[in-house]
Task: structure prediction
Amino acid sequence: MHLTEKEEAAEILRISGVKADNCMQCGKCSAACPAGAKMDILPHRFVWELMNGRVNNLAASNTLWQCLSCFTCSARCPRGVDPAKLIEAVRLSVIRKQGENRLNVDELPAEIDEMMPQQALVSALRKYNK
Amino acid sequence: MVYNYYPGCTLSTKAKQLDLYAKKAAEALGFELAELKEWQCCGAVYPLVQDEIGTRLSSVRSLAAAAAIDGKLVTLCSACHHVLKRVNSDMAENKEINAKVNAYLELDKPYQGETQVLHYLEVLRDEIGFEELAKKVVKPLTGRKIGAYYGCLLLRPAGVMQFDDPENPSILEDFIKALGAEPVVYDYRNECCGGYIALKDKSSAQNMVSKILTSAANKGVEALITACPLCSYNLQVNAAAAQPLPIFYFTELLAEALGVKEEV
Result:
């Protein structure tokens, strides 16, 4: 028994704890986003698509993996919407499914240099894998 | 004064200087950092959704341990500070998270978010005072143009972090002034360094770092200070060969100005 796309959107909004319907699509979040240049769906559009139940589109977007949770969007939103939390909720809805981890742990050692702090590895594994 | 201290995973290994200089400087300033027994890794990133309970537990264990001693917990790493402070706020404000965490942990006394999480910089500003700090400086860093790099985690979200103005912070500039150096304000001081994306998309991190370093260099910054091991890493390793700036942990300059750097 699977959730429909609309039901999944409702569940994502629930776990995010964000009042997304306060969004007025002003785009301040997208203007402020330091990772926006590489996103296929910008933060304000992400909020709109989620409100309209288009989870499949969002789950396939690279926005999930480019967002770094710097919270600039959340800080600049004039309506108290928190796009970073919405992106996180969709990201989790993806990686909580089996086989959807984004970092291959076997390939990780090759990426690690002498100076890399543990903090980088712990953060990345929390964000990209479950 | 003895403060409970949460070092986190990186400060005993790749970011030893952040930790060692902080402890030496504390000695010179008349306080001590006592490492919390059996602390566990905070997870480095705050669990942003409401139904992540397991990833909040390790923070609550440390917060509750500090509550049982004297109710204060000092951090140094920006990421640890961010995670502990936000989970603490969840325990105080979010009934559902509080109930689930306490049901799982079965602590001697349920934890309600009563610990005060203090960043080392807040100890300097709010408990000691930058004026007092300035009086204890024996080797002022006169003439040095230092840029503060705040990054993301200390400042945002301002409502929970209550650290400083998220758009126009001043705590690090005031700190630099107290050491006798000249703080230089530049545009990108609270922009993201790229964080952990260095592991997935190095060019993104290089791009972000380049904007920060260019912005700092254009204002005449000679060195940057930070409180975050991952920012420090990105600002050094993902800098272009043409634009490197010396990057220091703020505690290194503090120890230098207090005349105890050589003892480390």
Observations:
- Chain B touches chain A through 47 residues (CB under 8 Å).
- Residues 155 and 164 of chain B are 6 Å apart (CA to CA).
- The domain at 130-263 of chain B is CATH 3.40.50.1860 (Rossmann fold).
